[in-house]
Write a structure and sequence with these properties.
The complex is a heterotrimer. By secondary structure, chain A is an all-alpha fold. Chain A is built from ten helices and no strands. Chain A has a single domain, classed as Orthogonal Bundle (MetI-like fold), CATH 1.10.3720. Helix content of chain A is about 70%, strand content about 0%. Chain B folds into two domains: about 230 residues, P-loop containing nucleotide triphosphate hydrolases (Rossmann fold, 3-Layer(aba) Sandwich); about 70 residues, no CATH class. By secondary structure, chain B is of the alpha/beta class. In chain B, the strands form two sheets. A seven-stranded mixed beta sheet of chain B has the order 6-7-8-3-9-10-11, with helices on both faces. In chain B, strand 4 and strand 5 form a beta hairpin. In chain C, strand 11 and strand 12 form a beta hairpin. Classes of the chains: A mainly alpha, B alpha/beta, C alpha/beta. Chains B and C meet through helix 8, helix 9, helix 10 and helix 11 of B and helix 5, helix 6 and helix 8 of C.
């Protein structure tokens, strides 16, 4: 039981103009929550690496040098070199763009399609709901990674197909979140009021309900990107999708795995570490994002 | 009637809430008492702190809230300084509370009969064989038709009025000496409201149980209470026997509140609004009288401390420097 | 201040209705909801699907500029009736004539595109629930003006400012989101949205139920003012007779899908003839105190699922119920000028 709802609040505080208020709110959330702030900082670093990787990398990620094979981490090669003498740091940096690109594209696809299907299912109900829900159930019934493997194997071994496969296995999560969130709001007063204001059903869905389901969906996106990165890297790890010598975290871990036993741990350790950090970063971002995007917390 | 030793006596109670946007001075210098078997109404608009007051007294304040001082003596024990286990023992056995929206307060996946048994088993020494019978008696006592059948019902199968009766049955299962009813009929239909309120009044008189009715509805308080405590922005501004209060309100806020409440003979023109808003309780410069900024009898002294005090010895007392 | 002029907002699509004819006429309107999952499991024979009779043959008329109160308790069908009149729900049977035209024939899904849409508007019960939490006050008020009034640019913002002034909403609050507004301010936004297009029929669904008494008085005054300025007709829906009475010329009392009593507000209030109306009135807490006059309603209400057509629906809770009440359902009978009652044993005046 809580007395929170009876907290005396009289005249609400006066908000500043839109942008300034939003910025202040973002600053507030970050200051209150150092973990979120850390995750945001890390995300910023990853973003810079993804966009400008080739210019930041100290060496050419593809240049082999037979005289510097499997060197341990040193002042010149911070992460060491691999079996062909390539600088692992440079390869890890350049790979960020590809890994993030695949994950973002996949999540964007499943977000768009999943929200559209899920919102319609939640709003209209009936046969649309039954069909969409069965579709989600069917996808969920497969072991997801195996399903992704099968899709890539069937469609062909390419980066695009990794994206499609990752998008398809993420679809049910978006469908379910969107459906549930639309469903609880579809009888809200503001929906009926929107109808009286001349909105068609499609407009209500797009302009009234969709903005309101964004906060929970954003959290889902953030959690999902981490998972999508892991998924894309996993597919590459088992030899699907991205082909060597293209730098990609999954392949790099796979290539280095055999050297673990002989003591050259750095070959797979650093790509693996960065992969883990990336996934961790996105999982932490989720809660922070929800706090920022929800206007009710903006007081 | 004179009550030499009141059942509950609250003195100078203060409560603060710490929030993101500053400290909310929710209650300040609250003093009142509830006599044995007396029915009092605590009325005020939302934000007046009437619910928070009893959350504080019964020790179920939100974690952000803090009692800043004062005493709340109930049956010889100061509830402000009581340990959590002492409070736990008092709640449910000696002092029970019912809330608005009974459907939320009831456990949705447990039969209502079992929920009554839970309370009986926890706070009384009823042998387990007799629990069912006692629970059915409790249902019958709140005039639930067909109590044997309703014993097995789940809350969702019952109407709002029936759910509130179940809550009353649970609250009264241990024969408390004090019942706090926090907006018990808000959200119920008028006829259901009337039936539930009649039930509470009748049970209170039959069991000689003191009752506190927290409500925003002056009419409801007028109909069911012996005495009324009027709250505004975290202060008690006036307390008086019901008939006296309505006949001769002395605090300007009370008078305005009465004038703004529609009743049998009023028409729209006679319905006067109260100017202004409740002051923001987070302000550091709250005037001593928190109504002063809305008051037409305002004078400079109204904003100065100390606060105008209620006179505890008088049946009708008012916290105002310039009462009507 | 006077009603600001708006081009295209208050112009009737078909011109004025013939003089004397009511603005809105509801005739024998019914809405039955099938209850799913209660029929036979195997579709061997066409099992009878139980029907919930939400609105069961209601007649009502609202004249131009008239205020009609619709009173009833939760579950009596008044919300369904409102949704039928606002045309967001299709009736099972019956006619709803607005300015002489049967709008019940226009499917609810197409009603957003017909000219009558902007003439029938509504103020919702809960100002918090009925405002989109992600729209500012300005955006909320703008929406009907853009979609139904065809306004944009400066014309739109001028009109928004005019409407905000009309509901006495301070200009600087228009940029706020609902959670930044107080209850009374949210109520004003809801009213502004509904009157922005100067509708001829405004439905008020317990517009003050969620407000404090002091704010309630302000909003009631505002509604009375607006009605006078804009010449709207009101259908005021509430369970609280005491509030309805303040604003309405005529009262209708609804019980389990039917109108049981209707008449001039003062007359119904002072001499109710139906036992249910009496019980409703006696349940209103008055400032005078004392619950002695209370008429208690005992017993369980009749179920709205497939009710017996030949039985008074109030029987079982009615303090006056007799055998005759279980044999035939009473029809509305005129007992006094303008006052009709559906009861076999009406109270004497």
């Amino acid at each position: 039981m809580s007395a929170g709802s009876t907290l005396p609040t009289a005249a609400p505080p006066v908000p500043a103009s839109g942008v300034a208020a939003s910025l202040r709110h973002v600053r507030y959330v970050l200051a209150e929550n150092p973990v979120t702030a850390g995750a945001f900082a890390l995300f910023g670093v990853f973003l810079v690496l993804a966009l400008f990787g080739p210019w930041i990398a100290p060496f050419d990620p593809l240049a082999t040098s037979p005289d510097k094979v499997l060197q341990p981490p040193s002042a010149t090669h911070w992460f060491g070199t691999d079996q062909l003498g390539r600088d692992i740091l440079s390869r890890v940096i350049v790979a960020t763009g590809l890994d993030f690109g695949m994950a973002f594209a996949a999540v964007l696809l499943s977000f768009g399609l999943g929200c559209a299907l899920g919102s319609c299912a939640g709003y209209y109900g009936g046969w649309i709901d039954r069909m969409v829900s069965r579709l989600a159930d069917t996808i969920m019934a497969f072991p997801l990674f195996v399903l992704a493997m099968a899709i890539v194997a069937a469609l062909g071994n390419s980066v695009e197909n990794i994206i499609y496969a990752t998008a398809i296995i993420n679809l049910p999560f978006y469908i379910r979140v969107a459906r549930a969130e639309v469903n609880v709001r579809r009888n809200a007063g503001f929906v009926e009021a929107a109808r009286l204001s001349g909105n068609s059903e499609a407009r209500i869905l797009a302009f009234h309900l969709f903005p309101n389901i964004l906060p929970p969906v954003m959290v889902q996106i953030s959690l999902n990107i981490g998972w999508a990165i892991l998924n894309a890297a996993g597919l590459s790890f088992i030899g699907l999708g991205v082909r060597p010598p293209q730098p990609e975290w999954g392949i790099m871990v796979a290539e280095g795995a055999s050297y673990m036993i002989s003591g050259e741990w750095w070959v797979s350790f650093f790509p693996g570490l960065v992969l883990m950090l990336a996934v961790f970063c996105f999982n932490l971002l989720g809660d922070g994002l929800r706090d920022m995007i929800d206007p009710r917390r903006r007081t | 009637m004179d009550h030499p030793v009141p059942l509950l006596s609250v003195e100078s109670l203060g409560v603060e809430f710490r929030t993101r946007s500053g400290t909310v001075h929710a209650l300040e210098e609250i003093s009142f008492s509830v006599g044995k078997g007396e029915t009092i109404g605590v009325v005020g608009e939302s934000g007046s702190g009437k619910s928070v007051l009893f959350y504080a007294v019964l020790g179920i304040l939100d974690p952000a809230g803090r009692i800043t001082g004062g005493r709340a003596v109930f049956g010889g024990l100061d509830l402000v300084r009581a340990s959590p286990s002492e409070l736990e023992a008092i709640r449910g056995r000696e002092a029970a509370m019912i809330f608005q929206n009974p459907r939320v307060a009831l456990n949705p996946i447990r039969k209502v009969g079992h929920q009554i048994e839970d309370v009986l088993a926890r706070h009384t020494s009823t042998p387990s064989a007799a629990l069912r019978q006692r629970a059915i008696e409790a249902l019958a006592s709140v005039r639930i038709p067909d109590p044997e059948r309703r014993y097995d019902a789940y809350p969702f199968e019952l109407s709002g009025g029936l759910c509130q009766r179940i809550m009353i049955a649970i609250a009264l299962a241990c024969s408390p000496s004090l019942l706090v009813a926090d907006e018990p009929t808000t959200g119920l239909d008028v006829t259901t409201q009337a039936a539930v309120m009649d039930l509470i009044s009748e049970l209170a008189h039959k069991r000689k149980m003191a009752t506190v009715l927290i409500t925003h509805d002056l009419g409801l308080a007028a109909e069911h209470c012996d005495r009324i405590v009027v709250m505004h922005a975290g202060h008690v501004v006036e307390t008086a026997p019901t008939a006296d209060l309505f006949a001769h309100p002395r605090h300007p806020y009370t008078a305005r509140l009465i004038a703004t409440t529609p009743h049998g003979t009023s028409d729209l023109r006679s319905l006067a609004a109260i100017p202004g808003y409740l002051p923001d309780l987070r302000r550091g410069d709250l005037p001593a009288c928190r109504f002063s900024e809305r008051c037409d009898r305002f004078e400079a002294a109204c904003t100065e401390r100390p606060l105008a005090r209620l006179d505890a010895g008088q049946p009708h007392s008012v916290a105002c420097r310039r009462p009507l | 201040m006077s009603a600001p002029e708006v081009r295209g907002a208050a112009v009737s699509p078909e011109g004025e209705a013939p003089a004397g004819a009511p603005l809105l006429e509801v005739e024998q309107v019914r809405k039955l909801f099938p209850l799913k999952g209660r029929g036979s499991v195997l579709p061997l024979r066409a099992a009878h699907v139980p029907m919930l009779h939400a609105v069961d043959g209601v007649d009502l008329a609202i004249g131009t500029g008239e205020s009609v109160g619709l009173v009833g308790e939760s579950g009596c069908g008044k919300s369904t009736l409102v949704r039928l009149i606002t045309r967001t729900l299709d009736p099972t049977a019956g006619a709803i004539r607005f300015r002489g035209e049967d709008i019940a024939r226009i499917p609810a899904s197409a009603f957003a595109r017909v000219p009558q849409r902007k003439l029938i508007q509504m103020v919702f019960q809960d100002p918090t629930d009925s405002l989109n939490p992600r729209y500012t006050a300005r955006e909320t008020i703008a929406e009907p003006l853009r979609l139904l009034g065809g306004l944009s640019g400066t014309a739109l913002s001028t009109r928004i400012d005019a409407v905000a002034a009309l509901v006495q909403m301070p200009h600087e609050l228009l940029g706020r989101f609902p959670h930044q507004l107080s209850g009374g301010q949210k109520a004003r936004v809801g009213i502004a949205r509904a009157i922005a297009l100067e509708p001829s029929l405004l439905i008020l669904d317990e517009p003050t139920a969620a407000l404090d008494v002091s704010v309630q008085a302000v909003i009631l005054h505002l509604l009375a003012d607006l009605k006078q300025k804009l010449g709207m007709s009101y259908l005021f829906v509430s369970h609280d007779l005491n509030i309805v009475r303040l604003l309405c010329d005529r009262l209708m009392v609804m019980y389990l899908g039917r109108i049981v009593e209707s008449g001039p507000a003062r007359q119904v209030f002072e001499s109710p003839r139906h036992p249910y109306t009496r019980a409703l009135l006696s349940a209103i807490p008055g400032l005078g105190g004392g619950a002695s006059r209370r008429i208690r309603l005992e017993g369980d209400p009749t179920s709205p699922i497939d009710p017996d057509p030949d039985r008074c629906r109030f029987h079982g809770r009615c303090p006056k119920g007799q055998d005759a009440c279980t044999r035939s359902s009473p029809a509305l009978v005129q007992l006094a000028p303008g006052q009709v009652v559906a009861c076999h044993f009406p109270e004497s005046a």
